[in-house]
Design goal:
Chain A: This is AzlD domain-containing protein. The complex is a heterodimer of chains A (about 110) and B (about 240). By secondary structure, chain A is mainly α. Chain A has a domain of about 70 residues. Chain A contains four helices and two strands, in the order H-H-E-E-H-H. In chain A, helix 3 packs antiparallel against helix 4. The mean pLDDT of chain A is about 90. Chain B is mainly alpha-helical and about 240 residues long. Chain B has two domains: about 190 residues, no CATH class; about 50 residues, no CATH class. Helices cover about 75% and strands about 0% of the residues of chain B. Chain B is built from twelve helices and no strands. The longest helix of chain B has 28 residues. The radius of gyration of chain B is 19 Å and the shape is globular. The N terminus of chain B is likely disordered. Classes of the chains: A mainly alpha (about 110), B mainly alpha (about 240). At the A-B interface, helix 1, helix 2, helix 3 and helix 4 of A face helix 2, helix 3, helix 4, helix 5 and helix 6 of B.
Chain lengths: ~110, ~240
């Protein structure tokens, strides 16, 4: 068996620290009723985090400066149109992959 | 009326959760294969990669763990970095948790342990549309994603030597396309009067992300931008 002690310790340690933020809210929320401002705040989280994740894929962070990933930004436009038009997750994901493959094929 | 509720509950089976996971699978499979490839090229064995994807189960973190192992970082640094990268799951779980309070502690732990960006997106999309979700459905969604992820990582590890650059096929864009679609679907389900507020929040996130990315790593920027703009949302929504 090819197991290395350092790697096992890293995996176990990382397993614990990824589990904590995932589980704690489920343990805490059971025992308290959230105040209205908090539930309102939570209602804005999905839109904000999804936007942040999309923006994150457009930004390339180098050592100290940041730049825009133009191929991603270019592909986002037609993908957004497909999303608005079809309202389908599968169709949009497949279309997005095809658009990205085309853009990379043309510009590489 | 009772009949309608019955039908809704019947639609929320484990099987339906599995079905609702399918559109997100391309994302898991392509990123999982990539994570497996990166694992092998970072000198991890196939067994270690299987263990990593089973226990850590987090895309971005798995890439970062591999990179830090290669660079010879101390164990403490790798664990701390992983903790920070995954902190945003706290926000995801906090948003989902209020919908599962009626279930047992163990069920809540089971659901929480498998929360990802993708399963969160699919679940919250249903909630925002005013549809009900339950434990069975959520487990179907979560477990399908979990198993697909582990299998993809292992396949990536096994066949990694032959696929050197998965980016060429545009598969890495699957995740972005998915987040974008989930965002669009949510904006479309928002009531007319509130749409302006939500659109402005989207713009604020774009600006905040851009500014923050100049100063902090992207995983921190994602958390901060979300917290800041959600707070603006509460203040502006009178």
């Amino acid at each position: 068996m090819s197991f290395n002690l350092t790697i096992i310790l890293v995996i176990l340690g990382c397993a614990i620290v990824t589990l904590i933020p995932r589980i704690i809210p489920f343990l805490v929320v059971r025992n308290i009723t959230l105040p209205v401002p908090i539930t309102k705040w939570l209602s804005f989280i999905p839109i904000c985090i999804l936007t942040a994740l999309v923006v994150d894929s457009i930004i390339i962070e180098d050592e100290s400066l940041i730049s825009i990933d133009w191929s991603v930004l270019t592909v986002i436009v037609p993908t957004l149109i497909i999303a608005l038009w079809t309202k389908s997750l599968s169709v949009t994901v497949i279309a997005g992959i095809v658009f990205m493959a085309i853009v990379r094929y043309i510009f590489n | 009326m009772l009949k309608v509720i019955d039908m809704e509950e019947n639609n929320l089976t484990f099987h339906q959760g599995v079905k609702d996971c399918i559109p997100t699978l391309i994302g898991y499979i392509s990123i999982g294969i990539a994570a497996g490839i990166v694992g092998v090229s970072s000198n991890l064995s196939i067994l270690e990669i299987a263990l990593l994807s089973t226990l850590v189960y987090a895309g971005a973190s798995q890439f970062i763990i591999c990179a830090l192992l290669v660079s010879g970082s101390p164990i403490s640094v790798i664990i701390l970095t992983t903790f920070i990268v995954n902190l945003r799951n706290f926000l995801l779980s906090m948003t989902l948790a209020p919908h599962f309070t009626k279930y047992s502690l163990m069920k809540n732990i089971g659901i929480g342990a498998l929360v990802t960006d993708e399963s969160f997106g699919v679940a919250i999309n249903k909630i925002i549309k005013g549809e009900k979700i339950n434990d069975q459905w959520m487990n179907g969604l979560n477990i399908t994603a979990y198993i697909s992820w582990i299998i993809s990582c292992v396949l990536g590890a096994i066949f990694g030597k032959w696929i050197s650059n998965p980016e060429i096929f545009g598969l890495d864009f699957a995740l972005t396309a998915m987040f974008l679609t989930l965002l669009v679907l949510q904006l479309q389900s928002i009531k007319e009067g509130k749409l302006k507020l939500y659109i402005s929040l989207v713009l604020y996130v774009v600006i905040t992300m851009y500014l923050l990315s100049m100063f902090v790593p992207s995983h921190i920027a994602i958390i901060l931008a979300t917290i800041i703009v959600a707070t603006i949302g509460v203040m502006r929504d009178k």
